[in-house]
Amino acid sequence: MSHPIKTVLVVGLGSIGRRHVGIIKELFPEINIVVLRHRQCDKNDIDALGLYKCVTSIDKAIETNPQAAIIANPATKHIEVAEQLANKGIHLLIEKPISDSSMGVQALINICHQNNVVLMTAYNLRFLPSLIEFKKQLQANKIGNIYSVRSEVGQYLPSWRIDKDYRKSVSSQKKMGGGVLLELSHEIDYILWIFGPIKWVKSHVSKQSDLDIDVEDSANIILGFKSNDGRELTASLNMDFIRHDTIRKCFVIGEQGTLLWNGISGKVEYFAKGGKDWETILSSSPDRDYTYTEEIKSFFSSIESNGLPYISGDDGMHVVSIIEAIKKSSNTNSIVYLQT
Fold first, then answer.
1. For residues 139 and 249, what is the distance between their CA atoms, to the nearest angstrom?
2. In a designed cystine with 309, which of 120, 194, 290, 324 is the match (CB 3.0 to 4.6 A)?
3. pTM
């Protein structure tokens, strides 16, 4: 693949930043990778990761003349850094969520439009073959008219990264953009992607466990969609940091049966109306780097073609707006309607 990208800036060198560095090195070994972080990398990091440079200020980062940047620092810092880079014409892939609030996101989108900057939000689950097939089957009317959607995601927070103290993770700290709603916002993104705009939300968000965190660990949400045929479709979404059996599933119940996506096993299954058992439509288990690799390829391809990104800044904005509505609904114990 030929491309104009000679230097890429990676902002942040946590687990996701390191993953992006490794994937770029493997895909495009000729690209120079510059890392921007709040403290200087040690020489072992620079050598082990094959970095061109490690800098500690945005000005020094811009001096290296990157054509693209991956924003992988805490969500609370995304907009501040992204705006400065977009004003210099640097294309942006921003890790999910695009920010911890909607404040400043539209301004960033406008800056990117003005400067012809590609702005992509990093919801990598959209590159999973199983989720793509799940959407395809629904669009092909596999189960006829859809009656109900039930989505669930959960994993015990201390078991996410057993080599690290969960209390120091981004997920557990409000000041870094933690909590189930922001950390597990993939679910909101794929629900929007598959089922369309959300009209209203009703929710209960809480901290149920004794985990040493200052953010919510549980969210129980009902989402109402815009109606096209007189029927109002709703989805239930349950998200948590507290369950010990890791789960990521979506059931869609329709007039001709039920379709199930299992994001852990990589299976899409179908239970036909009048059937007796589940039928496997697809079983796909790509390695853990697959979706991130496809994401970076897609980002670079959008830059090369000057085309629209697969997952836009507007997509990221919609997710954050829904999260704010979910929080408001829980705080006020009421249905909150989204602006359309």
1. 18
2. 120
3. 0.94
